[in-house]
Amino acid sequence: MIKKKWLLVVSLIALQFACAFSPVPAKTGSTPTPILEYHSIADKKDDIYCVDPVTFEEQVKTILQLGYQPITASELLEMWKSKQNTVSKPILLTFDDGYKDNYTTAFPILKKYQIKATVFLVTSSIGKPNFLSWDEIKEMQDSGLIDFESHTDTHSNLLKLKADQVRNEFVESKQILEQHLNKPVRILAYPYGYHRAYMFPMLKKAGYEMALSTNPGFAGQRQGMFAVRRITTTSDPLVHLR
Ligand SMILES: [Zn+2]
Description:
- The protein has 242 residues and is of the alpha/beta class.
- The protein has seven helices and ten strands.
- Strands 1, 4, 5, 6, 7, 8, 9 and 10 form an eight-stranded parallel beta sheet that branches.
- It starts with a helix and ends in a 10-residue tail after the last strand.
- About 2% of the residues have low confidence.
- The structure holds zinc ion (ZN).
- The site of zinc ion has 5 residues, from strand 5.
């Protein structure tokens, strides 16, 4: 009996996991979209948040071979809002934190294959050692390939902040980015993925229309616009795409 119970529990967990990654069309009509979550592209074997450049380029090539069409987070938002799928097999490559190697290492590869991507910037880190400078951000933006969005102002654990501090993280990062980028910033990625439902109306009031979590799975509108799922790249993300 106990064994049967366990079998049921294991089956249900497996089913839940399978459903999270299953590219079944969402009820709203949006195409379930894999959003890959990268950080650094660098050769640091002991850091699971780093993908080495050779592996990254192989992943880019495989993504294209599988017929995926990389779009930016802004383009996904537009597709969802208009309910018009401008591409049939969308995928997003996202980079959190705004590391300098996104410019020195990832950007040349993205340009080589003409791949669109989105970088989520921590505004208080911009210009610091190991992080992107405004000049680098501008050059990447001007290429027409890279979309920049918010990863808050200080990359704090939002669950440990008071409500007004959380609000400031959303509002200030948006204002600083919009001043420098001359475009609306409508999308945010939560630091560490940590979020609560009380933050959704705050984001909306601040002018955001979408927020990305680290909950695993393909992204779809039925998850709600402020808890969109992503696929981590700490292990091979391509197993979910084939
Ligand atoms: Zn981060």
